[in-house]
Amino acid sequence: MTLTSEAPPRTPPRPHPVDSRGYVPFLVATAVFLAVVSVVAVWSGAASVSFGDVFAVLRARIGGPPVDPLLDRIVWGLRVPRVLIAALAGAGLSLAGAVLQALVRNPIADPYIMGVGSGASFGAVLIMTTGIGTGLSLGVPAAAFLGAMVSLIAVLILGRREGMLVPLRMVLAGVAIGYLLSAATSFVQLRADPSQLSGVLFWLLGSVSGASWSDLGVPAAVIALCGAVLLTQSRHLNALAMGDESAQSVGVDVRRTRLLLLAIASLLTAVVVSVAGGIGFVGLLVPHAVRLLVGSDHRRLLPATALVGAAFLVAVDLAARMVDAPNELPLGIITAGLGAPFFLWLLRRDGGARS
Fold first, then answer.
1. Would you tell me how many other CB atoms lie within 10 Å of the CB of residue 352?
2. Could you tell me the pLDDT band of residue 91, with boundaries at 50, 70 and 90?
3. pTM of the entire structure?
4. Rounded to whole angstroms, how far apart are CA atoms 342 and 45?
5. 8 pLDDT higher than 60
6. Which H or E run includes 58?
């Protein structure tokens, strides 16, 4: 795949390391890794808890002997929801990135590069710092979704030429709108109460440290529903990834399908931003890496992307607690540290100067 849909491929496509026979074992191996890293993440933390304590709490929750209430609070009340939110955020951002990369036929597309993440962040920070919109019963998730949709509509308008959406034009419009909304978010921060700034800044860089069980319901339902809808649209995504004319030739209603998929990508981004803050590069790094392994068929790519994305962000959250212990780093610092070199590698690999 090249950075622009107009550029011809330089080399014939190479076989992917994970073929059809290896796909299910790959999913199983990833699920096992997710389970292992999740247990380690629940075990790790400022308070000393042994592996035996973790399994004792989990056993108590399914009918085993009761455990110390403080231990139950640490493991079940704080660490388990934190790990689950991290997994949901990773899956949601990765699915959104996979959809956007297919729609604009560009591997550098992700919710933040397309401006969607910046719009969601602006809406959420506006509510958090000024209360604007609370009179309309807008909470942080609703404001994040509204911000994501407004920025996406702007990208769609600016990304059109002669009535047609131009992939590269959409990416450039998304970058410009993302910078504009980031500036607006910074302005809102400057106007905020100083006591709010540290929390807002940490939230903007991404964190799941304040996760609770009450935060899980909406993201879990939205990501599961969106994932199910995306699976039904996987053939259409395959067709759209080949270009609008190819999609139309196989009977895809390009306009309606594109709008549906863009709305799903925005919803996924907004719901993740509302519970985990701004976490960049996950939607860029994970889908592209998985595509290199399993290929571009979205019937296989989407489930693998969601699973790898969940495992990836749980591992990132674990690293965020261990790198500078006992302090915690925002997740966005680590994902940017991994994603930025990957982005540069993509540019070099696909001929950035030509693009």
1. 13
2. very high
3. 0.85
4. 29
5. no
6. helix 51-61
